[in-house]
């Protein structure tokens, strides 16, 4: 942020240089993946949360009780994988409920990105669409996520962070809902290529962080090294009703052929 301020100041002639360039930047840990239900939520004495055994149930219960108007926002996030800026910058002309997809015209990687809508995401958008004043804006560039006054919501922090704390969930941010989306695709057996396309990744290398989330898929790959077991040979029934052991006919035939060859060579 400090570097951005100085850069803008330099571009507008308000500053001669950007001293923030000299600061050593901390690299983001791209290997860190946090998703819903990864840990057991903290113990609680709140009555309506006692029967919620996992993080997702806890969080949904808190949102439904304390800020129910934001529940569709929460449902859409882990079911589309949108980045926060993409979700809260979404307009109705980019949402096709009939054909069940969203178009992100300016994704993080600079390319157009199409997102399919699951039944859960579709239901959440239907709730938003049914709200007063929304019907007239379906084909316009009006924002999808608005407050009670119809103004565009700038984000989630004014309600989501408090809900996470009340639910007793640790080390969890809104961006973790995107990781939850990827994790569920991986656990359902989606390929890395499919996950990359669903998340709008520019390269599959960005998707490799989710490879360990599909252990069943990894096992199926290493199982390719094991040759398939030989198929058992069926027993054949003789004319007298007795059963012939597998390979017996072949052995007898081979013995007869060998005897014939020996007899021929002795002539």
Can I get a quick summary?
The protein has 267 residues and is mainly alpha-helical. It has helices at residues 2-11, 55-66, 71-80, 84-88, 119-129, 160-166, 176-187, 192-199, 215-222, 248-265, and strands at residues 95-96, 101-104, 113-116, 236-237, 243-244.
Number of helices: 10
What's the CATH class of the domain at 42-213, please? Mainly Alpha
Q: What is the approximate shape?
A: globular
Strand-pairing-aware structural class? mainly alpha
- Examine the secondary-structure arrangement and name the CATH architecture of the domain at 42-213: Orthogonal Bundle
By DSSP, the count of extended strands is 5
Structure explained in plain terms:
- By secondary structure, the protein is mainly α.
- The protein has a domain at 42-213: Intergrase catalytic core (hpI Integrase, Chain A).
- The protein contains ten helices and five strands, in the order ααααβββαααααββα.
- It has a three-stranded antiparallel beta sheet with strand order 1-2-3. Strands 4-5 form a two-stranded antiparallel ribbon.
- α2 crosses α6 (160-166) and α3 packs antiparallel against α5.
């Amino acid at each position: 942020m400090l570097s951005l301020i100085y850069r803008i100041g330099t571009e507008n002639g308000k500053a001669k240089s950007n001293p923030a360039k000299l600061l050593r930047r901390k690299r983001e840990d791209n290997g860190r993946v946090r998703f819903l239900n990864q840990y057991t939520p903290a113990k609680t004495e709140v009555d309506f949360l006692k029967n919620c055994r996992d993080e997702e149930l806890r969080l949904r219960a808190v949102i439904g009780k304390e800020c129910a108007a934001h529940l569709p926002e929460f449902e859409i996030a882990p079911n589309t994988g949108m980045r926060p800026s993409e979700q809260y910058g979404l307009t109705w002309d980019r949402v096709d409920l009939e054909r069940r997809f969203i178009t992100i015209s300016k994704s993080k990687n600079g390319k157009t990105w199409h997102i399919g809508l699951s039944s859960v995401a579709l239901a959440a958008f239907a709730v938003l669409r049914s709200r007063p004043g929304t019907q007239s804006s379906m084909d316009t560039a009006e924002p999808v996520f608005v407050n009670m006054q119809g103004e565009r919501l700038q984000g989630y922090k004014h309600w989501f962070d408090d809900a996470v704390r009340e639910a007793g969930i640790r080390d969890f941010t809104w961006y973790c809902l995107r990781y939850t989306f990827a994790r569920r695709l991986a656990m359902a057996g989606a390929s890395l290529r499919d996950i990359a396309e669903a998340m709008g990744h520019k390269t599959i290398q960005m998707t490799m962080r989710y490879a360990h989330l599909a252990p069943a898929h990894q096992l199926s790959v290493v199982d390719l090294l094991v040759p398939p077991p030989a198929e058992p040979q069926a027993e054949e029934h003789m004319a007298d009703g007795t059963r012939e052991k597998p390979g017996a006919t072949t052995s007898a035939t081979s013995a007869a052929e060998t005897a014939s060859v020996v007899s021929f060579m002795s002539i």
